[in-house]
């Protein structure tokens, strides 16, 4: 394990919150390793490392909640491709990690909207969740989107909200809320 990863793991241990970690576990969020460190604290740690794809890859391999969140925060989004995102999503089990990946990485990668729509069309729940959340972040960020995408998002989200799939339904609700805030909800 590279020295930088060891250094980061030591920083995580110093900020460990066992109460948060145990609470997550009791609610079924059972990461292999979870220090219970908050996202604002992780942002603070990430700020000390800048953008670094090699370090991000090493952190992602750690199978630790916080290391993976840090990986999403420090991977240079302009160098992160859809194929890599597809691989990362396969190992995302819980929505808190997905949220961090969508906010800090997926929304900023090249062709984020196209990738998000491909995910939304998938039959995999986590792909759909990440697709809707990525689109919500794109809309919040004021990104210009082709009109076709805007209304396709509305149609797909309306359908997902009526489904019995919990994760896509939750993310579609968020995306619809953002859509209505920025586009007035009308078609």
Report on the structure:
- This protein is an all-alpha fold and 187 residues long.
- 67% of the residues lie in helices and 0% in strands.
- The chain is built from eleven helices and no strands.
- Helix 10 (147-161) crosses helix 11.
- It is globular, with a radius of gyration of 17 Å.
- The mean pLDDT is 92.
Record field, number of beta strands: 0
Strand content: under 5%
In helices, the fraction of residues equals 55-70%
Low confidence ranges:
none
- Structural class, from helix and strand content? mainly alpha
Secondary-structure map:
Blueprint: H1 3-14, H2 18-26, H3 39-47, H4 53-60, H5 65-74, H6 82-90, H7 95-104, H8 112-120, H9 125-140, H10 147-161, H11 166-183
Short synopsis of the structure:
This protein has helices at residues 3-14, 18-26, 39-47, 53-60, 65-74, 82-90, 95-104, 112-120, 125-140, 147-161, 166-183. By secondary structure, the protein is mostly helical.
Key attributes of the depicted protein:
single chain, 67% helix, mainly alpha
